[in-house]
Amino acid sequence: MSLNSDLHDNVLHQRTLVGWVSVGGIGLHTGQRVELSFGPAPAGSGIVFERSDLQGNPRVTARPDSVVSSSFCTVLGNNGTRVSTVEHLLAAFLGLGVDNARVVLDGEEVPILDGSSQPFVELIKKAGIRSQAACRSVTRVTRPVEVSQGDRYFALIPARTLSIDCIVDFDHPMVSDQNLCYKHAASFFESKLAPARTFGFLKDVGEMKRNGLARGGSLENAVVIDSFSVLNPGGLRFPDEFVRHKTLDIMGDLALLGGLLTAKVVARKSGHSLHHALMRKLVSDPDCCERIKIAEGDHESDLPFDLAPFRLAGLQGA
Questions:
Q1: What share of the chain is helix, strand, coil (3-state, %, to 5)?
Q2: Is the pLDDT higher at 143 or at 228?
Q3: Is the pLDDT of residue 63 over 60?
Q4: Which of 29, 184, 272, 275 is catalytic?
């Protein structure tokens, strides 16, 4: 991986990519072939998606107010332009602390690849990561904010760094009451979260396809479970791969806040719709969080949060 020599210690400045990388694949829900490329972007631009297949190459910026749908995946939109299933790519950007990137695709849906963030992590490392002159902004949660729907619950609690306490509990013997307490570090993200694949139940596949979903789903890009077992020939990548993937989805949705986030995340049977409901609540209430702009000359030890977990030291190939 190509890195600036000072990048491991320079967590105060924004990051972008060194060069461009490309990949092609099938959209999980549309079943359509999509070619995707991403590369460097100016400081302060955030993650911007560009539809090369539409006249004028319209763009959609990844931020909470761009969310137009959250049923089974996160869909962003702007003036009729849509980009769907963005969460695995956005999780990879946040996991490796990439603040700014331009993402170009020739279709509506980000390719699912193997159903995890691991291929995107490898592409980011192939592109290389570099620091930029501008300092970072950090979203710091200042008081607890929560949303719930029945027994589903999602909350952000003030903390000095980013951690996620996630529970999944489906009515299935293999996906019942799994818990993961994840403390973010770029190396942990790469090894413990990024490889976890999306999953689904065999009994739901027919109905999803009738509703225009999962048209590109297969054992190559998702873990599929019947009444008692995993159908994928290679089995699971982790015994608790299901809760790891749900934690990965949370990372992808939180990436819409832009920059870095410090908070303890508590998730109980949550999903995309609950995540986005909380982020709308968070950004609409100035008492819930503050956006801290790091300034030149600031010392990391004097900041009201811990940025050490966002260092890239420990990444494979770093």
A1: 25, 30, 45
A2: 143
A3: yes
A4: 272
DSSP 3-state assignment of 189? Answer: helix
Residue 4 clears pLDDT 50, i.e. is over it: no
Query: 3-state class of 237 per DSSP?
Result: coil
| Nearest CA among 200, 251, 253, 207 for reference residue 226 | 200
Q: Which of 181, 261, 184, 211 has its CA nearest to residue 71?
A: 211
Beta strands in the chain (DSSP E): 13-17, 21-26, 33-39, 47-51, 59-61, 67-69, 75-78, 81-84, 101-105, 129-135, 137-141, 145-149, 152-157, 162-168, 178-183, 199-201, 223-225, 260-268, 289-293
Strands 199-201 and 33-39: unpaired
The number of C-alpha atoms within 13 Å of 136 and in the hemisphere containing its C-beta is 27
Catalytic: 29?
Answer: no
How many residues in the chain?
318
| Residue 57 to residue 38: CA distance in whole angstroms | 14
Please report, in angstroms and rounded to a whole number, the separation of the first and last CA atoms in the chain: 6
The per-residue pLDDT for range 143-197, each reduced to its tens digit, is 999 999 999 999 999 999 999 999 999 888 888 889 999 999 999 999 999 999 9
- Looking at residue 174, what is its pLDDT? 84
Residue 142 has pLDDT above 50, yes or no: yes
Report residue 277 as tokens: 């409901």
Question: Residue 292: helix, strand or coil by DSSP?
Answer: strand
Query: Residue 286: how many CB atoms within 10 A of its CB?
Result: 10
Task: Report how far residue 170's alpha carbon sits from residue 1's, in angstroms, rounded to the nearest whole number.
Answer: 39
Q: What angle do CA 51, 193, 179 make, to 5 degrees?
A: 125
The predicted-structure confidence for 237-287, as pLDDT tens digits, reads as follows 999 999 999 999 999 999 999 989 999 999 999 999 999 999 999 989 989
Apex 236 CA angle, 210 and 176, nearest 5: 70
Domains and CATH numbers, the chain: 13-135 (3.30.230.20), 137-310 (3.30.1700.10)
